[in-house]
Inverse folding.
């Protein structure tokens, strides 16, 4: 297991370095926006990675409600937590890219931006619930919230197909054309972010398993002390 | 501000977010380790 994590860490570091080089130097400069368009190589793969993690959270939550297996509950927690980190990157890099291109930081009322912000807030609420609720029913309530939260993901993705929005069309399947060299750099960056998400999620999963074992041992210890 | 500043700001912000999360994880790991050690005693 430790060897697997070490190998994944090395692969992730190499891929992230290559992805950074390709994004800043290797990719061609976009004609209209210039160099600021390179934010795209971090913004879009982060969004895709967050969507994938929220999908994992959705599936794990359904499986937890059916089987009540603590391991699926941990998987749901971890995927939501790491998903929020990637979604935060999207929420922060979006306005930094919008300012020089649109002339504003945030287009108030824009459907894509608003649904993304709502998605982020739903998963922040999920994490707050998991962090501060002491009820034994917390995993069940969290799983139900996660299922409702995941319904926002297709709304975020398809919003630009059905509504007029400031946000550009999707680069894949949206009718827009992307230079093949840009698509190549985009996929390298996505692969690097997927490896990073996998590495962090794996580490976080193991930490949560050990944390719960320690909490069980502490509860058992205090029970034994109480009975003496 | 020229467009390169926005580009650098976005990349630095991305790594600051990931870095902050890794620091939070490292602190959680230390806490669990301390609790494990106190259980062993």
């Amino acid at each position: 297991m430790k060897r697997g994590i070490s190998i994944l860490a090395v692969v992730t570091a190499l891929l992230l370095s290559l992805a950074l080089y390709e994004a800043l130097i290797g990719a061609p400069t976009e004609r209209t926006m210039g160099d600021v368009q390179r934010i795209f190589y971090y913004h879009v793969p982060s969004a895709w990675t967050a969507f994938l993690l929220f999908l994992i959270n959705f599936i794990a939550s359904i499986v937890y409600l059916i089987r009540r297996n603590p391991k699926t509950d941990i998987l749901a927690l971890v995927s939501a937590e790491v998903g929020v980190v990637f979604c935060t990157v999207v929420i922060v890099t979006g306005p930094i890219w919008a300012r020089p291109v649109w002339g504003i930081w945030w287009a108030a009322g824009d459907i894509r931006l608003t649904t993304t912000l709502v998605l982020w807030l739903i998963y922040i609420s999920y994490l707050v619930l998991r962090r501060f609720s002491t009820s034994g029913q917390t995993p069940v309530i969290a799983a139900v919230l996660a299922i409702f939260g995941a319904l926002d993901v297709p709304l975020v993705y398809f919003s630009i197909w059905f509504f007029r929005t400031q946000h550009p069309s999707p680069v894949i399947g949206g009718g827009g054309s992307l230079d093949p060299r840009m698509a190549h750099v985009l996929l390298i960056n996505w692969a690097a972010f997927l490896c990073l998400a996998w590495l962090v999620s794996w580490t976080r999963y193991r930490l949560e398993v050990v944390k719960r074992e320690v909490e069980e041992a502490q509860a058992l210890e205090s029970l034994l002390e109480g009975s003496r | 501000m020229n467009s390169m500043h926005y580009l650098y700001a976005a990349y630095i912000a991305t790594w600051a977010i990931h870095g902050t999360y890794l620091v939070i994880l490292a602190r959680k790991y230390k806490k669990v380790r301390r609790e494990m050690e106190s259980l062993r005693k």
Summary: The helical segments of chain B are 3-40.
